[in-house]
Amino acid sequence: MPPHRFEYAQAEEIRDAFDQHDVRYLFIGKSGAILLGFPDTTQDAELFVDKAPQNCAALVNTLRDLEFELTEVQRSEILRGGALVQLKNGPFDLNLVFAPDGIERFRDAWRRHIDVEGFPVCHPDDIIASKVAADRIKDRESLPRLMAFRDYWKARH
Prior knowledge:
By secondary structure, the protein is an alpha+beta fold.
């Protein structure tokens, strides 16, 4: 079976369910960049989630509504705001990031975020800062294109 691909309909499902439960989050990574108009694909949705206890509890309920089958370990990690929780046991692949590399605090990223048709998206500078700080090979390979996109995006906004 081919790997899943992040699609706009999944972003809508996330937005609508998270809004219904008042979960504070931001699209980050390539999924965030794609919502800003970056011409690329990615396998999963990546979300930067506010790790406040009440938000994490609402997130668990939201994920159940989205039909993710959380293991007890995943549920526990989400409730404590663990660094990263990867979910591949639902309708699509989802990465929950509670402490992305290169971004100090959720509230700082929230102040800089961009609203794209109701989708809360990390500012391109934060997406890039996170990829630079993570320093993974796949991120280093995509950084020149992301930086060129950021410059193009800033010129237009």
